[in-house]
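Tutorial, part two.
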Amino acid sequence: MHSNPCYNLISALEGFNSTIFAYGQTGSGKTFTITGGAERYEDRGIIPRSLSMIFGEMKKYPDRQTNAYISYLEIYNNQGYDLLNEDHQNTKDIEDLPKVSMLEDEDGNCHLRNLSMHRVASEEDALNLLFLGDTNRAVSETSMNLASSRSHCIFTVSLESRRGGGSEVILRSKLHMVDLAGYVVIKYTTPTRAHNQQYLTIYIVYCAYKCSSERAHKTGAKGKVLREATYINTSLHYLEMVIVALHEKNTKGRSHIPYRNSMMTSVLRDSLGGNCKTVMVATASAEKEQTDESLSTCRFAQRVARVRNDAHLNEEVDPVILIRQLKAQIVALQEELMVLKGDVKEGDDLKEYEKDKLRQKVVEYANNPDADAHLNMGEISYTKMRLCFGFLKAMITGDSATAIRENKALLKKKYDTAKALAATVNEARNSIKELTAKMEKLRTDKAVASVITTNSTTIESGVVSDDEMAIVAAIDAHKRAYKVGFNQLNDLKKEIQHVQKMLEMGRLKLQKDFDGWYQAQGRGHLVTETLVNKQDVAVSEECMSL
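Running the prediction step on this input gives:
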């Protein structure tokens, strides 16, 4: 178990499960440590600081696609409840809400039913969910804490990240931040043999099962608070049993770990002794009267420090991308089989736009660093194969200026197409504005006529006239035309950006080729931009001005 919480946050972004949990006596500052104070920005707790750090790290890697999901589980009286459930606002008693049930699959993994997962796109969205969950959390007044948390809460950030370039590997990780409810102590006096008063500290879990009602009465815990304290201390007692068992597993080879004794230990199964990097925050009271409880907390922290977890990277293969790659591989094998069998057809002559698309695919194939890249030319034919080989040959042995000239002509053609599309889109947008204004004027005139009319025949409100229906139909038609043109314009924009990149690459290649030729003449080092501008070849001057 690591001692640096920031290390756990970075590990969660890298695909490792991580957990931070606070343990200690009631009133010792666990909730303040985990969630922070509500008055000052400097009093932020671990959760808001972690969220800020997570989204800050996500912005540092724009090439990595990362999705974050938030869930907030409350374990109250050994029953699970969703703190982000919308029914919280309309329910007075928490026990009337749907309970979160726990299921275990054949591999021993726990799954929570009725626990909602909310996707968040920013730090603000995540903090809003945290505030909503904290508002719904159960608190009560005790003798040691006026706003004591009466439940265990687990705030979970689930991360899914994928590296750039369409990688099929997905990293999945979970960051649990746990605020455990504080254990409550009973202090009562009993005479020793010397009739002296001696103070004994007894956990209320033992009071619930062994102590008499008279001793429970002396604690000041009655009714609902006593019942809550019983469940809290019982679950913390089971947590300590799990920690002891895990330590004995490492030292004495113990096989059975009692995770199923309580819901909390079952949910935190991986965090305590499995695939997780875990940090424990021990909170102790500075009061002299609470020295025994502080020592008990420190002893528990020592036991936790002896537990060893085996954390590993959580990698999965995206089935959608894998299926797409397998389909492309099948197409390539089918094409190869057609060539080997001699089933390839001659094919018809291609049109100019088809040649442009094929040339673009060849350039993308040549610039793809992937050794297993596939040139997808559609339905294979000898005509397409000859064209592709011709494009490749021109790229390898042809003149760079010719390639630049061709790309420039292609770029000009696409610019002209984009201008025409933009004019169509603007015309549709202006028509929509004019028709909308016309509709508003028609409705205004209709409303005025209905108000000032004095005869018995009044204009019925809500009746759509033929003119209005015609205008609505025209608006819908222009909206469809606008949407189609806008989508085509976006696609064309991507193609223009790609051709511009090809032009830049061709310009650099032309500089490199000319520099190599000049060096081959034995004339020393060349400042490319200066000498290329002096050439009397018009195409070179044109390319250098791009």
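DSSP finds 17 helices and 14 strands in the chain. In part three we will examine how such features are distributed along the chain.
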